[in-house]
Structure formats: C-alpha cells, structure tokens
Amino acid sequence: MEVIGLVLATVGTTSRLTETVWGLCDAWRDAPASIHELRDFLTRTQDFWSAVRYGLESGNRINNQRSFGPTLGSETLSASPEWEARSTASLIRLLQHGLEALNRLERILEQVADGTDRPGNQTGDNVPIALNSRRRFQWVRRSNEVRKLRADLSRNSDLIYGQLLIMNV
C-alpha cells in the first residue's frame, strides 16, 4: 500500500511540475531551449508515472494477493518473504528518492516562473523581479542544478522500471 501511495504522490508532483513548466514556456516566449527540453522530459516522465500507476492499480484489482517474484513460463516462482520485503523496500527507497528530486525541481521552477529570487536573498524576502531579464539570469544560474536533477530523475526512473520488472509487477 505504501508503494501505491508513493506512486500517487509522484504522479501528483509530476503533474504539477509539468503544468508549471508548460506555463513557464507559454509565458516566456524566448525561453532557452533547455526549458523546452525539460518540458518534454517532464511530459514523458508524467506518462511513465501514469503508466506505473495504472499498472499497479490494475494488478491490485486483478489479484490483491499477487505474488512478487520471477516467472518461468506462465508460473510465478514462489518468492521468499524476505526477498519480497527487500524488493519492496528497495522500490520504496527509489520512489522516495525520485519524489525528493521532483520536489527540489518543483521549487526551482516555481521560483523561475514566479520571477522571485531564492529565499534568503540580499533583501531578506522573495521580491518579484523583472521577469524576462532576471528570469533568464536565474535560469542560467540554476540550470546546472536542474540538469543534474534531470539526469538523477532519468536514472532513478530506469532503476524503478528495472525493479518493477524484477518484482514481476
């Protein structure tokens, strides 16, 4: 149940992020290409998480007591409870890591979209700034961090996909 809860939280966060970056692209007509690339990446990420959610919910409806484990032909090999617990714990860690990275990315994009500087700037508060001139500067300043988060999210999604395959979900 914790896995589905984390997947639902991730779907919600990814949806908000995708909406934010699409709005940013619409409002900022001369946005750098990297923002458009991030928009496309987040759209694909949202599709991935929607598919994971659908798969998990479908699996629960079909068989609430489904067995995790490798398959041989049409038979599911019985997995030890210890293996199931480790696999589920590993999946939960990956989901939590991905959700944390999405939350960091969301904070960055909201600051760029709102045209506010980071909390604790020189004036001590989040003051709206001239959008196009400061937005570009702020994006450039934070783009390396965004690039790292994007790579981290991509790698994490690959690991989650692999973990779900191993668990035969």
Count the beta strands. Answer: 2
Q: Major beta sheet, specifics? A: 2 strands, antiparallel
Instruction: Output the radius of gyration.
Output: 19 Å
Biggest sheet, strands in spatial order? 1-2
Q: Categorize the overall geometry.
A: elongated
Mean pLDDT figure: 79
Termini separation comes to 14 Å
| Low-confidence region ranges | 119-124
Strand content: under 5%
| Overall SS class | mainly alpha
Element string (H = helix, E = strand) = HHEEHH
DSSP helix count?
A: 4
What proportion of the residues is helical, as a percent range? over 70%
Counting structural domains, the number is 1
Identify the notable features of this structure and list them briefly.
single chain, 169 residues, mainly alpha, two-stranded antiparallel ribbon, 4 helices, 2 strands, 75% helix, 2% strand
Question: Mind sketching the topology for me?
Answer:
Layout: H1 2-27, H2 33-62, E1 71-72, E2 75-76, H3 81-114, H4 131-166
Antiparallel strand pairs: 1-2
Helix pairs in contact: 1-2, 1-3, 2-4, 3-4
Descriptive overview:
This protein has 169 residues and is mainly α. The protein has one domain. It has 4 helices and 2 strands; from the N terminus they run H-H-E-E-H-H. A two-stranded antiparallel ribbon has the order 1-2. The longest helix has 36 residues. The chain is elongated, with a radius of gyration of 19 Å.
